DNA sequence: GGGTGTGAAGTTGTTCACAGCT
DNA sequence: AGCTGTGAACAACTTCACACCC
């Protein structure tokens, strides 16, 4: 809802969630000098089915050539544009515990169009300390320009997550990646994605328990 | 498919993915001395709709009381049992870079039934070094008992992920949480979940770009 | 031949709305 | 009266299969 204004073309959420994966594969191919790829090869490398891949790409338009495949460069650009990644996004990480520091140093961001530009923590003992090339600031030191897009990453302890989110939103952040297990209560207009590590493990635990091979591989006694 | 043996009751994947969230909320309620909760309150705290919550819980059986709500303790136990979390799971983290170290120290695991028991890295310069109470070992030092369930967490650089996964599986691991962006090629019998941080950011970028308020909200003079 | 693009069918997940129990 | 449990309607997503084009 709230979808009042024009929503360009309507790309399903499930598709949007896979576009970054395709993009990564395409860039790897491009780096290896490949310039045409079939839906089968691409799907394989991305871990999806080829029919699904073709359907996903069809939402962007027709960028493939029948009997041949997709132009790697062209498709790459198209997805980049669709995801809005032509210009770099700035990232602000809140919470400089272990996880926050690890994220601050994470190499994968820069290579995919994200620049970590602020490290925020309200603990006065931490402000001023450098992590990599950046100094930790408190929220007063976080003043993004009104026209720049900043993605906020919450890596605080659970009880501080809501306050961190509110502070980010108050300063114009409209997209948040939340590592705290606490669900955030925010305006509809703010996009939130959650990564809860313990939840992921629990989901795996469920499947593990369900596919346990034998009931109890005890004993081997004859008798 | 491959669904040869009995699959107890059939709980939808989407429901399984939410059970851990409910469980966390229930435990928090329990800690605050609450002993009955309605689907509305629980749904609210978990960030879902009440009808959906009730449907989810209905897959576990009928543990609510009409006109009253759910017994917090009872439901907690039921979900715990269903997820297979009665006994602790052991976790092995592979790749002791920034992310691996952060995960090794992550407090959220222990409180949710997971014990990090192995820290693995094949770099000889790292083996023997302690991170918290555990020493880093190489794969030769990873010898879980045949009957214990271990969840493997891959926090290596992308190019090492497949080899790490293969090594885990060769030692009996059947559940893997993969932080590397590389998709893993593994037998069907191994459950894999992927957490790709850059992908999450890119999905947010898409939404951000799409909901940008005005073309250019300039002016207003600060100084 | 080879591989894309896409309606149609099938599957899975969500929401509604109300019967039924306490 | 209040709140759960659930069939039934609905919506989203996936897979199939084949027409169509190079």
UniProtKB/TrEMBL annotation, chains A, B:
DNA-binding region: 21-60
Keyword tags: Cytoplasm, DNA-binding, NAD, Repressor, Transcription, Transcription regulation
Family: Belongs to the transcriptional regulatory Rex family.
GO-annotated biological processes: negative regulation of DNA-templated transcription; response to redox state
UniProt function note: Modulates transcription in response to changes in cellular NADH/NAD(+) redox state.
Compartments where found: Cytoplasm
Protein name from the UniProt record: Redox-sensing transcriptional repressor Rex
Annotated gene: rex
A GO MF term: DNA binding
Pfam families per the UniProt record, alphabetical: CoA_binding (PF02629), Put_DNA-bind_N (PF06971)
InterPro entries the record matches: CoA-bd, NAD(P)-bd_dom_sf, Rex_actinobacterial-type, Rex_DNA-bd_C_dom, Tscrpt_rep_Rex, WH-like_DNA-bd_sf, WH_DNA-bd_sf
Subunit structure: Homodimer.
Family matches, as HAMAP family: Rex
Residues reported to bind NAD(+): 95-100
UniProt domain CoA-binding: residue ranges: 84-183
One Gene Ontology cellular component: cytoplasm
């Amino acid at each position: 809802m709230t979808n009042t204004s024009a929503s360009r073309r309507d790309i399903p959420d499930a598709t949007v969630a896979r576009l970054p994966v395709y993009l990564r594969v395409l860039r790897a191919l491009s780096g290896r000098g490949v310039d045409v790829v079939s839906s089968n090869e691409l799907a394989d490398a991305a871990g999806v089915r080829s029919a699904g891949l073709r359907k996903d790409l069809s939402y962007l338009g027709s960028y493939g050539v029948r009997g041949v495949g997709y132009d790697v460069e062209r498709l790459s650009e198209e997805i980049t544009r669709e995801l809005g990644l032509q210009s770099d996004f700035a990232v602000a990480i809140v919470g400089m515990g272990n996880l926050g520091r690890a994220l601050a140093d994470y190499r994968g961001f820069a290579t995919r169009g994200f620049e970590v530009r602020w490290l925020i923590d309200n603990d006065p003992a931490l402000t001023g300390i450098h992590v990599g090339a950046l100094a930790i600031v408190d929220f007063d030191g976080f003043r993004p320009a009104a026209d720049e897009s900043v993605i906020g990453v919450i890596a605080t302890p659970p009880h501080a997550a809501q306050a961190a989110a509110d502070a980010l939103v108050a300063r114009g952040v409209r997209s948040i990646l939340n590592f705290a297990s606490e669900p955030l209560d925010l305006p509809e207009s703010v996009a939130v994605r959650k990564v809860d590590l313990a939840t992921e493990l629990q989901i795996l635990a469920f499947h593990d328990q369900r596919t346990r091979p034998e009931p109890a591989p005890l004993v081997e006694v004859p008798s």
